[in-house]
Design brief:
With 377 residues, the chain is α+β, with helices and mostly antiparallel strands. It contains twelve helices and ten strands. β2 and β3 form a beta hairpin. The longest helix has 32 residues, at 234-265. The chain binds flavin-adenine dinucleotide.
Length: 377
């Protein structure tokens, strides 16, 4: 059994960390205030090879796997979770849909420019009446000759205000609950994107409502077989949980680092806070939880990359890592006392940013249902 990353993976991690520290970290606090996404970073991510991390070199990708993506997203999230969310929705949701169920022409038109950072993608599944139950969507796609006419609305669609295209789900067979995925391009008549929704954290990410009012989409823009859009994405969704777990570990690590620096520096009762054993134990537990979350996540990635069953492990990694991150962010804030509660501290940002990771990509409750099912319950 070998738990070490290979030399290439270690080198990749170092490069990703240097990239994130140079490009993401300096913007983290400012964009949290201004709520503006740094769109120019798509091109820089592309130049570093990161937007194609999981995709075939035939379309300009890096032929990497889930472990590479986990390494990358942990590093990005440590520097800025809000900026990372936009990249996550582009790579792990929108481009992955094209990669998995798109045909060669669709990959040429959307995946390849997406990998080059020339087109930004969004992915819309959630609706007002359909969150965890992704089959409960009300958006309809009705055949009209060689086109479909789409009507409905997607809620909480990250990147939609910036996106050149949105991959979204719509019912194509109401009787059999058949759902298909479509690519809708920016500027399509009848497509409206709201102003970004104000959220507790992840401020740079642009999450909005998408309204489809008789939007005509050619059948060439349907991804995969009709009525099989969601069914064919299930493996990709499960892999996404591995990367979401790594995302959470990145936030946890940033919160831990901030807490560690603070307790070493802050003097009370004539000594640094870190001299109190209760505080040392708190930090020891935080680091142990981060290590455990990373081991679960890398194990799930390894299983997925080696063609083994991984659905239970991916769900376990995501639940454990996201709940660990939320706990560590809260503890980091507490360890900073009143300062932690001010908007000057980074800990409050980690605390606000992390919670959504327990909601998106399968809430903790839904993933516990998945784990229980895998246990034969
Ligand atoms: C910032 C942000 C960005 C997002 N970006 C995107 C995006 O780009 N694309 C997209 O499609 N969606 C996006 N979402 C939406 C996200 O996918 C949904 O919020 C998520 O699927 C959960 O759905 P819901 O919020 O409707 O919660 P609900 O499904 O209504 O659940 C509410 C609560 O009930 C619990 N619950 C539900 N069913 C059960 C059950 N059977 N047993 C026990 N408990 C249950 C849930 O765990 C949760 O705690 C985003 C959300 C946010 C906040």
């Amino acid at each position: 059994m070998d738990f070490a990353l290979t030399r290439e993976q270690e080198e990749f991690r170092r490069a990703a960390r240097a990239f994130a520290e140079k490009e993401f970290a300096p913007l983290a606090a400012e964009r949290d205030e201004t709520n503006v996404y740094p769109v120019e970073l798509f091109k820089r991510m592309a130049a570093a090879g990161y937007l194609g991390i999981k995709f075939s070199s035939e379309y300009g990708g890096d032929d990497g796997g889930n472990l590479d993506a986990a390494i990358l997203f942990e590093e990005l999230a440590t520097a800025s979770a809000g900026i990372t969310l936009g990249m996550y929705c582009h790579v792990i949701l929108a481009l992955t849909a094209l990669d998995r169920i798109g045909n060669a022409e669709q990959k040429r038109r959307y995946l390849a420019p997406g990998i080059r950072g020339a087109k930004i993608g969004a992915f819309g599944s959630a609706e007002a009446g359909a969150g965890s139950d992704i089959t409960a969507i009300a958006t309809r796609a009705t055949r009209d000759g060689d086109d479909y006419i789409l009507n409905g609305a997607k809620l909480f669609c990250t990147n939609s205000p910036l996106a050149d295209f949105i991959a979204l789900s719509a019912v194509t067979d109401a009787d059999k609950r058949g759902i298909s995925l479509f690519i809708v391009e920016r500027g399509a008549p009848g497509l409206r994107v709201s102003k970004p929704i104000r959220t507790l954290g992840m401020h740079p990410a642009q999450t909005a409502e998408v309204v489809l009012d008789n939007v005509r989409v050619p059948s060439a823009n349907r991804l995969g077989e009709e009525n099989r859009g969601v069914a064919n994405m299930l493996t990709a969704f499960a892999e996404g949980r591995i990367v979401a777990a790594a995302f959470a570990i990145g936030i946890a690590r940033a919160a831990f680092d901030a807490a560690r620096r603070y307790v070493l520096d802050r003097v009370q009762f004539g000594q640094p806070l870190a001299k109190n054993q209760v505080i040392q134990h708190r930090l020891a537990d935080m680091d142990t939880d981060i290590q455990a979350a990373r081991l679960l996540t890398h194990q799930a990635a390894w299983l997925a990359d080696n063609g083994r069953p991984f659905v239970k492990e991916a769900s376990q990694a995501k639940v454990f890592a996201t709940e660990t991150a939320a706990r560590i962010a809260a503890q980091a804030m507490h360890l900073q006392g009143a300062y932690g509660y001010t908007m000057e501290s980074t800990a409050q940002r980690y605390y606000r940013d992390t919670h959504v990771l327990e909601i998106g990509e399968g809430t903790s409750e839904i993933l516990r249902n998945v784990i229980a099912k895998q246990l034969g319950l």
